[in-house]
Design goal:
By secondary structure, the chain is mainly alpha-helical. Helices cover 37% and strands 8% of the residues. It contains five helices and four strands. A two-stranded parallel ribbon has the order 1-4. A hairpin with a 2-residue loop joins strand 2 and strand 3.
């Protein structure tokens, strides 16, 4: 008996360094490193090095047609074209970049949530309305002591230990404590 199996790839979820390797594109911190649009980004000084930033200007979105066209041109010219270095091993099996997603751990938990908390806890912002003052941090630590957490996780770490938080801590913060806590303790103009 012969069996034929038809496999279709629905999505490919990767962190940003893996996306660059899988799609055969320049990394996220290089010019045209965004897999989803034609934004070139710009370099700024950051600490002892530099960082690539993307402003809010809206650029045309990349799609499978432009990906195929630019990967062909990149292979012919032996240079990247709008960040595309050549054809991906997945390009025969899925639409690139439409079926590529950034993983939730890096994008949300260690990305947006970590950044917002870092800004809110940074003493340089003590005069801003979003700054978490010490009494706010104490209230949070008291509040989280009484939260029942799933059996597979440990208790919440204190805001004072935020440098020890990992993706799981940020995930449980945003999923289990942030919304009820903020609705109770933040001013209505912020929440």
């Amino acid at each position: 008996i012969e069996y034929y199996v038809n496999v279709k790839i629905a999505l490919c979820a990767c962190d940003l360094p893996a996306i660059a390797n899988v799609l055969n594109i320049r990394p996220y911190n290089a010019e045209f490193g965004c897999p989803h649009c034609f934004h070139p980004g710009s370099r700024i000084k950051c600490g002892k090095g530099t960082a690539r930033i993307y402003d809010n200007k809206v650029y045309e979105r990349k799609n499978s047609t432009t990906y195929i066209k630019h990967s062909f041109l990149a292979e012919r010219s032996n240079t990247s074209v709008f960040g595309i270095r050549g054809k991906s091993v997945l390009s025969n099996y899925m639409c690139i970049p439409e079926q590529i997603v950034v993983d939730v751990m890096h994008c949300i938990y260690e990305g947006v949530v970590k950044s917002l908390l870092s800004i809110s806890l940074n003493g340089n912002h003590r005069n801003e309305h979003f700054y978490f003052r010490n009494n706010f941090r104490i209230k949070f630590d008291e509040y989280t002591k009484n939260i029942e957490v799933p059996h597979d996780r440990s208790k919440f770490l204190s805001f004072n230990d935020i440098n020890l938080w990992n993706a799981r801590q940020y995930k449980y913060f945003i999923l289990y404590s942030a919304i009820p806590f903020f609705s109770k303790f933040l001013n209505s103009d912020i929440y």
